[in-house]
Write a structure and sequence with these properties.
Rossmann fold, single chain, 2 domains, 9 strands, SIR2/SIRT2 'Small Domain', binds nicotinamide-adenine-dinucleotide
Length: 247
């Protein structure tokens, strides 16, 4: 068995409070590109469309890109073996919770239950006037912008835009999980998006061992990572699960 895989499996098997933390990289093999890097969405789109002030002042233009990125195309993605392996780890009591920066709902679709959505979700929309919530699949996006059925206010996806705060409940639960973790499994994230990027640091400062899965080095790899498993999450995580069975 690969030495690092064995080390990571042993840490997870002996952990009392293991937490997973995922970024856009875990959904790449489901067909969703990350934001950063040469194949990232920001090489094609201007990130300003996800700025909250731009959304309020150029609502239609922002919505056109949002519809294309998060509803036409995210909507068709399915969980991959990495999402499924994490759901199985929770089912077996190995993982206690999962913090995700993703807004694609793929962890829940794979069967994960204790999921903290640090950046919110694309699954629901919220009225910018009266705060009514709607399931996104009930909203007709053929006419933009979509409007609230109760007050005619503009609807906004229920994920956070640049310039908005972290949803309070997810922020609190994630911080608690990071503080209490003895093993923190970081998957597919550059560690560049604040304040989410602080969570592995908080875990480390509180004594957690950091296991990292990524195709390339991140901001964590040479600083706080204890065991680096280099490769695609969809390949590594099922192998890690298998290794846990054997240690
Ligand atoms: P990022 O785009 O900054 O970085 C992606 C990371 O994934 C990189 O470190 C890359 O090396 C790694 N990666 C790429 N393919 C991988 C694979 N197959 N297996 C393992 N790792 C792989 O992503 P981020 O740090 O999560 O930050 C971007 C922000 O954008 C997030 O906060 C998130 O909210 C949002 N976002 C979400 C989605 C989604 O919901 N699926 C997609 C794009 C962006």
């Amino acid at each position: 068995m690969d030495k690092y895989l064995f080390e990571a499996a042993k840490l997870l098997k002996n952990a009392k409070f293991a937490i997973a933390f995922t970024g856009a990289g875990i959904s790449v093999e489901s067909g969703i590109p990350p934001f950063r890097g040469s194949t990232g969405l920001w090489s094609k789109y201007d990130p300003v469309v996800l700025d909250i002030n731009y959304f309020h002042t150029n609502t239609n233009d922002a919505w056109k890109v949002i519809r294309e990125l998060f509803y036409d195309f995210f909507g068709k993605a399915k969980p991959n073996p990495a999402h499924k392996a994490l759901a199985e780890m929770e089912k077996r009591g190995i993982l206690k919770a999962l913090i995700t920066q993703n807004i694609d709902n793929l962890h829940q679709e794979a069967g994960s239950k204790e999921v903290y959505e640090y950046h919110g979700t694309a699954q629901t929309m919220v009225c910018t006037e009266c705060a009514s919530k709607y399931h996104s699949s009930d909203i007709d996006l053929s006419v933009l912008p979509p409007l609230c059925k109760k007050c005619n206010g503009v609807l906004k996806p229920d994920f956070i835009f640049f310039g908005e705060g972290i949803p309070p409940e997810a922020a609190q639960k994630s911080a608690e999980a990071a503080e209490n973790a003895d093993v923190f499994l970081v998957i597919g994230t550059t560690g560049e998006v604040m304040p989410a990027s602080m969570l592995p640091q908080i875990a480390k400062q509180n004594g957690a061992k950091i296991i990292e899965v990524n195709v390339e080095n991140s901001n964590y790899t040479n600083h706080i990572t204890d065991v680096f498993l280099q490769g695609k999450a969809g390949n590594i995580l099922p192998k890690l699960l298998e290794a846990i069975n054997r240690v």
